[in-house]
Structure formats: C-alpha cells, structure tokens
Design goal:
The structure holds 3 protein chains of 3 kinds.
Chain A (H helix, E strand, L loop, with lengths): L1 H20 L18 H12 L4 H9 L1 H22 L20 H23 L8 H19 L9 H24 L16 H31 L9
Helix pairs in contact in A: 2-3, 3-4, 3-8, 4-7, 4-8, 5-6, 6-8, 7-8
Chain B lengths: L1 H21 L3 H22 L2 H25 L2 H4 L4
Chain C lengths: L7 H19 L3 H22 L25 H32 L4 H13 L1
The chains are: A mainly alpha, B mainly alpha, C mainly alpha.
C-alpha cells in the first residue's frame, strides 16, 4: 500500500539519522556532561539559602523559571476553553434541580468505595499542594488529584451535578487560577519593582520567607487552574449513561 | 542497582507501545496505553525524577485514560471493533 | 564516542520515536494516531530525563539538616522542571484532540481516514 511504503521510508530515514548521531551523546550518568554544567549547579547550591525551600524542582519551576509556568497556566486554561467551544453545545448542561435524580451504576460496591475514598483523596490533594516545598509534589500534582476526586464521583454517580463543581463553575475556576498567578506578579509591579519578583512582596517577613510565600501563592493559582480545566474537559467529553451517542 | 532495573522497564515500554498500536479493539488499545503510562512513570521514579513520576501517574494513567474511554464511548460500537 | 551500554537509554528513545512516527503515519484510525503521538511525547520526555542523570546522586530534594548542598550530590533539576510542564500541556492537548474527534464522529459517522476523505470529497462535490 502506498501509505505504508512511504511511512516506512520516513521511518528508515529518521532511524538512520538517529542511529548515526546517537554515539556522540555523552554517557548517561556523567556529572560533567554539558547539560549539568552551566546554570544548574547555581540552582542546586543556592536554592536553600535563597528561598528556604528544599525541593529543587519546585523552586526551578515556580521561581527561577516562573515566567514559563505563567505562560503554561494560560495554555492550560485555553485548552479547557477550546474544549468547551468545540463540544459545549452538544453536551447538555445540568438539568433543573427537581428533575435530577442520580443514576448510579446500581452497584453498592462502587458507591461505598467512592464514599470512603473521596474525602481522603481531596485531603491528600491539599497536603500535596502545601507540602510541595519540602517533598516531591506541588501545584500540578495537587490540582490533578483534586480533579480526580471530583471525576470519581461523576463516574460512579452519573452526571449528577449536585456534588462538586458543575461546568460553569469549573470554567470560572480555570480562569481564576490564571488570574491568581498574574495577580501575584502584578502586586510586585504596583510597588514599583519588576514583574514576578517575589522578594519585593509587601509582607513583613525576611526576604527568603517572602520568596517562599510567593511560591505558595503561585502554586495555589496553578492548582486551581489545573483542577478547573480537567473537570471542564471531562464534563465536555463524558456522556451520561442514558444519553444518546447519536 | 536501580540503573540496571530501569533498563528492564525500558524494554517493557517498547513492548507495550507496540502492543497498544497493534491491538484489534479500541478499548483494548486504551487499556494498554494506560499500562504504557504506568510503566513510564515507574521508569521515571527509578531514574530519580520523583516529581515527574508523580505527575505522570496522576495525569497519564488516571486522567488521560478516563478521557480516552469517555471519547470512545461517544463513538458507537461499530467504530470500535475491527479498527486498524 | 560512547559504547553501546553507556547510552542504552538513548537507543530506547530512538526505538520509541520510530514506533510513534510509524504509528502516526501508517494507521488509518484517528484514535490510534493520537495514541502514537502520546508515545512520541513520552520518548521525548525520557530523552530529557536521561540527560539529567548522574551516577550516585539522589532525588533533587535537599534532606533536612544539609546546609550546603553540592552540585554532584543531586540530579540536575532543570530538565525535570521543563518536563513537568510538558506533561501537563500534553494531556490538555490530548483532551482538545479528543473533543475534535468526537465532533468529527458526530458529523461524518466514521473515524477511519480513507472513509472520512471520501465523505468529505462527496460533500464538497455535491
């Protein structure tokens, strides 16, 4: 077939280039490889004294490279809004309160397991968010776990919007998260300093603690944005058990 | 020790990727894709990238699989079987 | 020039890249093309994370009580930060692509590429 032959040609071409240039890469695990030499020793050695945060990945993501994460939060919010635009007209929103009866799957095992698990999932999500300074975790993981808790209830109970957030509220949350991120940046600009410079926030603590609090504020924004977007995309994609698939 | 263990998981990754693309039913392919995400997250954890492993598990193995299954359910049953 | 086993991660990255590329080009079902794109993305992430490895180093979290961390004790945290955002944006893009696929299925009734092109040609002609 024509398509398969052409794709095999493309694969052969790309494969020959990859296999030809692969032995020039530095060995895996070399501490003197060029990727570990220029900026990253500064990040590793000065992270703890600059902002009192032992988790190096969190400081790099939200403080040293905070501008990229701000753009990424806007990208996530835009993806959620795009999904709403594409599928929002064909997926019915919440019905009125008196006609909604929750259509569970009818299995007592799923119902009981969801009731037991969901409070702990949400609590763990908040723990991961706030403890992201000292252990692996942070804003993205916390937001995803929050969305997973709400999605679990939706999967077990059908499209009953009586628990959690419905589609309009999820859209508001997604945009609010990006606004919180920008807000933290604008607060420093109001006081005459550069955008997203956490050490100039107007809080009366030491400079390292100010940067730590700036990271926390920014991570709350990221969590809210990620949770809102994932719930919004799920809501648009998911069809209720009784709805037609047309 | 964990460097050699991670190489075994790389081999698992390649096999699961080929299996996910060659499965006959779409739902089977999605489940294999979830397994691919899971193996890749274990590989990241063995390398020492714990933040990335946490994010990959929470996003790839949980949320992406749910998205795929929801989208497949909205296509009818004839579109699922016999798809190449 | 590095020997075979010193760069074993990169051979696996090359294999996954080629599997993803072939899946995207050769499979007529649109959902499989999307899965092949995700396989491609995982291969790129493994490439970046293999660049950041150091033998004998630990996770990039400074333990309690260490006041002067040295650069050779911790894995390079910069590619981890970049890949974190890459994974999240990848999942959001997959969500939008699935919304597009559902919308295409609603309109044309099929998810196979040759039938889709046929129906689009009929619509444009008639």
């Amino acid at each position: 077939m024509n398509t398969r032959f052409l794709s095999l040609l493309a694969v052969l071409f790309m494969g020959s280039m990859l296999f030809y240039t692969a032995p020039s890469l530095p060995p895996v695990g070399d501490p003197e490889s060029p990727a570990s030499l220029h900026v990253s020793p500064y990040y590793i050695e000065n992270s703890l004294s600059d902002m009192e945060t032992p988790n190096l990945v969190t400081t790099v993501v939200t403080d040293y490279r905070g501008y990229d994460t701000m753009g990424e939060t806007v990208v996530i919010m835009t993806a959620g809004l795009a999904c709403l635009l594409i599928l929002g007209f064909w997926t019915p929103k919440r019905r009125s309160a008196k006609k909604t009866h929750y259509q569970s799957f009818g299995s007592p095992i799923l119902d009981t397991a969801a009731r037991l698990l969901v409070p702990y999932i949400l609590l763990f999500a908040l723990y991961v968010l706030f403890h992201g300074h000292h252990s692996p975790g942070g804003g993205f993981q916390g937001g995803t776990l929050l969305a997973a808790g709400v999605i679990l209830v939706r999967l077990v109970r059908g499209r009953d919007p009586g628990w959690g957030v419905d589609r309009d509220q999820a859209t508001t949350l997604a945009c609010l998260g990006a606004l919180i991120y920008y807000g933290v940046g604008f607060v420093t600009m109001f006081f005459g300093n550069s955008f997203l410079n956490y050490s100039k926030l107007p809080i009366p603590v030491g400079e390292a603690a100010r940067r730590s609090l700036g990271i926390l504020g920014v991570e709350i924004g990221v969590t809210v944005a990620v949770a809102g977007t994932l719930i919004l995309i799920f809501d648009c994609l998911h069809a209720a058990p009784g709805e037609e698939t047309a | 020790m964990t460097e050699h263990l991670s190489l075994i998981f790389l081999v698992f990754l390649i096999f699961t990727a080929i299996a996910a693309l060659e499965a006959t039913d779409l739902l089977m392919a999605v489940i294999l894709f979830g397994a691919f995400s899971f193996f890749s997250a274990t590989f990241y954890a063995l390398i020492g990238a714990l933040d990335v492993a946490f994010t990959e598990i929470a996003l790839g193995a949980v949320v992406a699989t749910v998205f795929f299954v929801s989208a497949i359910r909205r296509s009818s049953k004839e579109a699922r079987r016999g798809s190449r | 020039m590095s020997s075979f086993f010193e760069i074993a991660n990169y051979w696996a990255v090359a294999a996954l890249l080629l599997i993803g590329l072939h899946g995207m080009l050769a499979r007529p079902n649109l959902m499989r093309k999307l899965m092949a794109m995700n396989i491609f993305q995982v291969a790129v992430i493994i490439f970046y994370l293999s660049l950041s490895e150091k033998t004998g180093a630990s996770t990039p979290v400074v333990p309690h009580g260490v006041l002067n961390p040295s650069a050779a004790d911790f894995v390079n945290p910069l590619p981890h930060a970049l890949m974190l955002t890459a994974i999240v944006v990848g999942v959001a893009t997959t969500g939008v692509a699935l919304a597009l696929l559902v919308s295409i299925y609603r309109r044309y009734g099929t998810l196979e590429e040759p039938e889709l092109l046929e129906k689009m040609r009929e619509e444009a002609a008639g």
